[in-house]
Amino acid sequence: MRFEDYLSEQGVQYEKHTHVTTYTSQGLANAEHVSGFMVAKPVIGKGAGEFAMCVLAAPEHLDLHKAAEVLGEAQVRMATEPEMAELFPDCALGAEPSVGSMFGMKTIMDTGLQDDEFLVMQAGTHTEAIKLRREDWERLCKPVVAPIALA
Q1: pTM flag (> 0.90)
Q2: DSSP conformational letter for 49
Q3: Per residue in 1-31, pLDDT tens?
Q4: Residue 24 maps to which CATH number?
Q5: 104 located within any domain
Q6: What are the backbone angles phi and psi of residue 140, rounded to the nearest 5°?
């Protein structure tokens, strides 16, 4: 399912932007002329159980130990590229939207994003972005909010 279709089905208002090809979240921020702290970057983690989408600001890095604590796992590793391709078959590799619920995943949001009015994220391609209200994003994802970025 396309991200825009999912948002429309859920009654979420959004802006869709086309930009130059970008392969990183910080590159997306540059292309969209916004702070990297406004870009919601998804990092997929896996413990012994299921995959989880950890969402943090573009300049931040995921603390796997903190993510494991939040998920109640002994340890968490990052998903591999083949796993990512299987989890997000309708998305370009590395361009998945930061909406775990769309993919049946638990979402963890880093506390660093909780004060943003809007979030920007990839829309499933390396040339399209979606901007939406953080409150609407939280309503969609129902994230666990926790400090998961490296200190």
Answers
A1: yes
A2: S
A3: 789 999 999 999 999 999 999 999 999 999 9
A4: 3.90.960.10
A5: yes
A6: -70, -45
CA dihedral over 88, 94, 96, 98, signed as positive or negative: positive
Q: Please, are residues 40 and 122 in contact by the beta-carbon 8 Å criterion? A: no
- Residue 78 backbone phi and psi in degrees, to 5: -80, 145
Q: Is residue 150 part of a domain?
A: no
**Max CA pair span of the chain:** 41
Range of the domain at 49: 3-137
134 SS3 class? helix
Query: What is the per-residue pLDDT across 26-62, written as a single tens digit (0 to 9) for each?
Result: 999 999 999 999 999 999 999 998 999 999 999 999 9
Domain count, the chain: 1
Position 25 scores a pLDDT of: 95
Q: Which residues of 88-108 are buried (b: 16+ CB within 10 A; e: fewer)?
A: beebbeebbbbbbbbbebbbb
Is residue 18 included in any domain, yes or no?
yes
Half-sphere exposure of 139 (CA within 13 A, CB side): 10
Q: In what order do the strands lie in the sheet with 118-122?
A: 15-18, 128-133, 118-122
Domain assignment present for 109:
yes
